[in-house]
Design a protein that fits this description.
By secondary structure, the chain is α+β, with helices and mostly antiparallel strands. It is 21% helix and 29% strand. The chain has one domain (42-151). It starts with a helix and ends with a helix. 20% of the residues are buried.
């Protein structure tokens, strides 16, 4: 496909009257269905206040039945750790239907810390020791959902 583009480009450039646009050499085919790699850990924070862990995040935590949240109000870093489902501070992880994702409720955390939930965002996650971390202030978090697709 790219060789065809370069051939057309060379033909185009042969005509000096048309040299106003020079296509860059890093063209990529846009696929609107392209989503982040399922092999990398991601956490989606929904505008309803849920946290959705992809399969890689869930596996990195050891496939737990529940998680506990650890949060730094100063830095905006949120961590997820495997927890005993019977512990009073744990949040159950639920398998999301036919997907490979797992979801937990985060409304209480959002409410307690006054965290805004005006849109659904997907965060790149990082595992350090036994905790999966996301940065809620990450400017590179990806918008998800209908509003995200229609905005741009």
């Amino acid at each position: 496909m790219l060789s065809r583009i370069y051939k057309l480009y060379n033909e185009y450039m042969a005509d000096e009257r048309k040299r106003r646009i020079v296509p860059p050499d890093d063209l990529e085919v846009f696929d609107k269905r392209k989503s982040p790699s399922a092999e990398e850990p991601w956490v989606t924070r929904t505008k309803q206040g849920y946290f959705v862990l992809n399969r890689a995040s869930y596996a990195a935590l050891g496939e737990p039945d529940a998680v506990e949240y650890v949060y730094s109000p100063k830095t905006g870093v949120l961590g997820f750790r495997a927890a005993d489902p019977d512990a009073p501070h744990s949040y159950q992880l639920y398998h999301q239907g036919h997907s490979k994702n797992y979801q937990s409720s985060g409304q209480a955390l959002h409410s307690f810390y006054g965290l805004q939930m005006d849109q659904t965002l997907r965060y790149r996650a990082e595992v350090i020791a036994d905790t999966l971390f996301i940065d809620l202030k990450d400017k590179e978090a990806l918008p998800v959902g209908r509003k995200a697709r229609s905005d741009g």
